[in-house]
Amino acid sequence: MSKTKIKEACFYVSSAFIAIMAIVTVHFGWLDSVIAKEKPNIGANMPPVQLDNVAKAVNNAYIAASEAVIPTVVSIQVVSEAKQLQSFGGDLEDFFFGWPFGDGNKNNKNEDREVETPKRMGSGSGVIITPDGYIVTNNHVVEGAIENGITVITSDKKEYEAKLIGTDSLTDLAIIKIDGKNLPAAHLGDMSKVKPGEMVIAVGSPLRLQHTVTQGIVSALGRGTSDIGAFNSSAYSIANYIQTDAAINPGNSGGGLFNLNGSLIGINTAIASQTGSFIGYGFAVPVDIVKATAQDLIANGKVEYGYIGAQIRDINSTEAKYFGLDKVEGVLVNSVQEKSAAESAGIQSEDIILAVNGKTTGTVAELKGLLATYRAGDEVTLTIWRDKKSITKKVKLKPANESDDLSDNKVKSGDIDEDADGIVKFDDIGFTIESLSKSEKEKLDIDNGVLIKSVKNYSIASKAGMRAGSVILKADRKKIETTGQLKKIINSKNKGESVLLNLRYGKSDFIIVIEIP
Q1: Is 91 a catalytic residue?
Q2: Of 123, 140, 205, 340, which residue is the catalytic one?
């Protein structure tokens, strides 16, 4: 083959190769990526969402509030003595060290050895409330701490040894102190301006994740211990919680609930949960109670609450109708303690407390919350509903040790009617009564009354709160001596009318109103 033909063949092969490469480049873009080595332009055609001014403002408000309050919140680690081994759970994430067991050597004999007391490590949160280092937290976070067992970690990762200043189990609050100067202290908000639906952030150290921010709203105000399942609380416990849907988990206790102005409105305390973890609702001690309690603990190391000295409870629609109220409001006085502030002021059983110093009290939780901001010796004005009209009474509050325990109240008696005795069934209402012997009355420390022998489930009586084993002392303010007397009073009522019953269960007195079916 001649050189000319060889050159022609090479030219045709080269041209064919170039043509094939051009086709591949056009159809597959392979040449650009291989030869030019260009990177794919990921996401270039996806423009960002343009927020309107309102959305930008809300987003920036959350950011600004978080940046402002995070430095005021601290993480707290507590070492305490463990009296017994406890399961994981509750509000603190606990673990034990210093186990009081052997070292596992099977050859050990019964030789004397020093046994180390087991310790528990717990964690929680707190909020700095003064520039010189006073911190508010929960009582249950620091309760039982050993000496030098409280460590505070600030948002800039500095660690401080804290001193316990004082605790208050009734509000579940405590004050600790670290040595510091010019620390970022939280601004305390105005509880009167807090409203349901208000946007809030919770800051704390849930599950040991320090300085975590969650957001939500104020879900409700005035929640009591029964709302969160705190069945073991004391009769004197003060619960008037803010409910929020901002996520709160173990370790958040003692941390802050803030509004978008960056003001502290509550100290996160509890969660409503069957698992120990957040399922939708948390609860915080309102800032007005926090402020009053903190001031006393810092000044005196304790709180001397003022009490009116009455056993109280919420009312329902049937009772509101019976007492002539236009709506369901106020707190019903079941009984008044002897020699109490309430008795001195002329407060009576069956009074309904509508307000304290002009602030309405729709529930027991709200009444206790308001009174928690006052101290023994303070005088408050109570607005009372009595005999279908509003009156006021000035009450000088007394400390608890000057009043009888709430579980040992006495009700003054009224006039006596004589009637036949025996077992009586009120089938439509759903309960049965029987007489009490003289010895039974002496055992119960009462002079009169009839025994509730049984109560039908889901009946009117059951829904009203009547319990088997209770004693009916009075009906419509008349002292009950016999079962026939009570039967006569109830049978005299027309359908839709109500009867007021004063009862005693154990040593506690209470009032219920039953509407006649």
Answers
A1: no
A2: 140
